[in-house]
């Protein structure tokens, strides 16, 4: 124990973790210990659990300076996924940077629902799904990885963001079944993608009025265009929901990620557009997260 009682050189794994946990906490980080461990594991190329087995291991100068660089960025509020350059999502790992929203565990609720509702594989027919506003490509690529019979169109309004999604498709070796189209919502889809077996989207749904409620890390680092959608957050859904009827096959599902306070409003939009079998599904925290509906 004695070697870890005082802070300062020589820095061991335990001492530096204690120091950075305090430092990040003072800088307003809300998960300082976990973040310190993840970043140190990355700097040392060790699985996090190994840090615990090697608490008294001293750090050499090159390890310290790599770690210091990362801690500086985190202390300024930059999210861990941007510092590491990757984030795990469902069954895949995605490259992440400031071009796109960081994939969230909440969005796995939508992936899970999509897998449940997709028609069974049919040897004679490939299924067609579109992911509108694909960001990193998270939903499109997770679904394509799970279902080899699926062909996916992934769209985004930002060419820069779509560049990141394409890089992810290449890294995951899914480029042959996932096509990318740039444009505004459904206008991005070419005519041969107008009879879909499923349409999914995690669009921007935060209201401008909620801007001040957001965590600094999100507000200052993630792309605003991926977060906000008008005063109440529903502007994009007001356009996307009615338009999606034109590109779904009869009986095909529409799945949308929504804000936890938007269940009733989105149900109303789906009813007004003429959708049937409307349901709001909860995320792991039990809050409204996904709207599900079917074209009649
Ligand atoms: N579809 C992407 C995701 O789920 C991006 C969502 C967004 O930018 N609003 O991560």
UniProtKB/TrEMBL annotation:
The keyword Methyltransferase applies. One of its GO terms (molecular function) is nucleic acid binding. S-adenosyl-L-methionine binds at residues 133-137, 156, 202. Residues 122-210 form the Methyltransferase small domain. It catalyses: L-glutaminyl-[peptide chain release factor] + S-adenosyl-L-methionine = N(5)-methyl-L-glutaminyl-[peptide chain release factor] + S-adenosyl-L-homocysteine + H(+). Its EC number is 2.1.1.297. One of its GO terms (biological process) is methylation. Substrate binds at residues 202-205. The keyword Chloroplast does not apply. Belongs to the protein N5-glutamine methyltransferase family. PrmC subfamily. Methylates the class 1 translation termination release factors RF1/PrfA and RF2/PrfB on the glutamine residue of the universally conserved GGQ motif. This is Release factor glutamine methyltransferase. It comes from Lujinxingia litoralis.
């Amino acid at each position: 124990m004695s070697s870890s009682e005082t802070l300062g050189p020589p820095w061991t794994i335990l001492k530096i973790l204690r120091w950075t946990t305090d430092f990040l906490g003072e800088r307003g980080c809300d998960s300082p210990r976990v973040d310190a461990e993840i970043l140190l594991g990355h700097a040392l190329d060790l699985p996090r659990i190994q840090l615990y087995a090697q608490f008294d291991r001293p750090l050499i100068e090159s390890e310290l300076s790599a770690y210091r660089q990362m801690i500086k960025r985190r202390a300024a509020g930059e999210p861990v996924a941007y510092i590491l350059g990757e984030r795990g999502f469902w069954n895949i790992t995605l490259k992440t940077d400031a071009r796109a929203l960081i994939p969230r565990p909440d969005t796995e609720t939508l992936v899970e629902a999509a897998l449940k509702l997709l028609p069974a594989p049919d040897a004679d027919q490939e299924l067609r799904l579109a992911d509108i506003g694909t960001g990193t490509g998270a939903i499109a690529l997770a679904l394509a990885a799970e279902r080899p019979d699926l062909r996916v169109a992934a769209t985004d309004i930002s060419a820069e963001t779509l560049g990141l999604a394409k890089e992810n498709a290449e890294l995951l070796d899914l480029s042959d079944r996932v096509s990318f189209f740039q444009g505004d919502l459904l206008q991005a889809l070419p005519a041969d993608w107008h009879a879909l077996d499923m349409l999914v989207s995690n669009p921007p749904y935060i209201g401008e009025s909620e801007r001040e409620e957001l965590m600094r890390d999100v507000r200052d680092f993630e792309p605003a265009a991926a977060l906000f959608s008008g005063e109440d957050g529903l502007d994009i859904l007001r356009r996307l929901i009615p338009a999606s009827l034109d590109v779904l096959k009869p009986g095909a599902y529409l799945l949308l990620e929504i804000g936890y306070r938007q269940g009733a409003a989105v149900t109303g939009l789906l009813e007004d557009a003429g959708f049937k079998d409307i349901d709001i599904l909860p995320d792991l925290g039990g809050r409204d997260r996904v709207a599900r509906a079917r074209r009649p």
